[in-house]
Predict the 3D structure of the following.
Amino acid sequence: MHSKDDLKKVCKNASAADVLPELLDGEQRQVMREKFEADGTLDAWAKTITIDSPPVVSYSAIKDFHRTGNEQWGLDFYEEQMRQLKRASALVFYGRDEFIHPLEDIIWEICQTDNWVLTCHYKHENSIDLWVAMLAYELSVVIQGVGDKLDPPLVQRVKDEINRRCLNNYHDNPDQFWWYRIKHNWNSVCNGGLAVAAMIIEDDADRLATILEHALSPTDEFFKSFTEDGACTEGPGYWRYGWGYFMRWAWALKNFSKGKINLLDRELAEKVCRYPLAVAIDTGLELSFCDSSPQALPPYLAAAINDFYSVPELFALTGWQDDTPELSLWESLFAIPENQCYESPEEVYLYDMSVLKLCYNGTTMGASCNHNGNNHNHNDLGSFILHRDGINIITDPGAPVYSARTFSKDRYDIFYCNSRGHSVPVVNGLFQQPGWEGRGEMTYSTEDGCCMQFRRAYPDETLTKLTRELDLARDGRTLTCIDTFAFTQVPKSLEEVFITGCDVELEGDYAKIIPQKGQPWKLSVDQPGRFELRTPEIHPDDYNEKTGPLWQIVFIPKNLTEVIRLAFKAELMG
């Protein structure tokens, strides 16, 4: 840990220009400007700027949140506000000076906004949440990148607001915030975002050193959110988010300190940096366990990681999130490398996280069996994904649209979070229960294959054994799933459930899964019974359009005994 005196020396010998030097690199800016002009990105951004009416939040929308608990309106507003800020500042940054006045209006409206805290996070006047830290970071980057083109009183107003709304309280007592030493993404986003903002706008070396000392202090706690094999317990989506802000902070501090302070100077850090390679199926596709939706890796993140460790394979996973990406000025300076092709290793086993990925001949199988007590947890012990030709044949539902109940006692009433939304059994009418006590076990070897034990996930005292064996054939054409149950008495009911977003046809003793492209798959079982196709009940407020419609393929065995063994096969047809 660096002392306060060491940090004061760093602060006295550095300036805001050292924080994100790429913003001042005219050559790099020109390269990206020409690219964005040529591919139409700047024109696309320009069409979305609401010059006459910056986004504002209505009182009726606030009342609606308190009445229904649906926070989507708030996210829509804040995301649109951030989108306008990023795009307008990028247009100015890349030479479209006609957007200076619209940018100033957007910034002014943000400064005038009564509260930067998301309504669902608001506690009191001094609250700081993820969005406050993100907005402080983005506004400081705008000041660094295009502040010389903005009206000086407005620039000062931005600095004053960042100090008033977050840095003053953070400087005085960071322990007042519940997230300060938390072991998940709030730690890195809030501490890292505020630290970078301070390095850009704070001129007082002593005050800045105190803020940096505060931000450095909870680093060990943040690393405890990762397993020994580098896996993110919150899933790949929150790895991108939490680790993304940590890397912004690490990159900025390394530059600011002239290399004297390296936040990644620990063995676990390199493993965490390699985590996307372990869960990636292809660019923009991954094993989306927990509250996660597959996305590409932002180019800035691959570049930042490679400034600390040599992991060039990450560049093959990079891409924009959509056709007109929302990029901060700094992020926009990193291009997607050309002619990159991701090649997954055949076998990846994250032993401590109990996640397995097998990739054979164009087919990928991923499985998870950790526990049901993680942050952003889904009750999904023993679930798996089967993927081919860019499509999940057996899928994970991803995250629901967030609302107040997503983070309440009612979380597991939500289809996406409950085990009924995953490819796992329903035992005696019971779904899996949340919590650490429902921990599963996974063993894997190339010779013996994958075996998962997850009996403890079910609150059924009569269930004494539940194992699932998964085996993907080397030719990628057959996945075998063998489930074995043992009970102290004959169960009253048992259902095997498989989740898919593909079309399904029931053909008597098997189910035919028909993806939008590629060949269909035949799902069969070695025991008598019947297949059913069900449409899951998903509350409209939870429905995630990115995931799309889902189906439950349900098998109900005919014969129920104290020991039941069901061997399923998913076979590529044709």
About this structure: The first strand starts at residue 280 and ends at 282. The mean pLDDT is 92. The two ends are 61 Å apart (CA to CA). The first helix runs from residue 4 to 12.
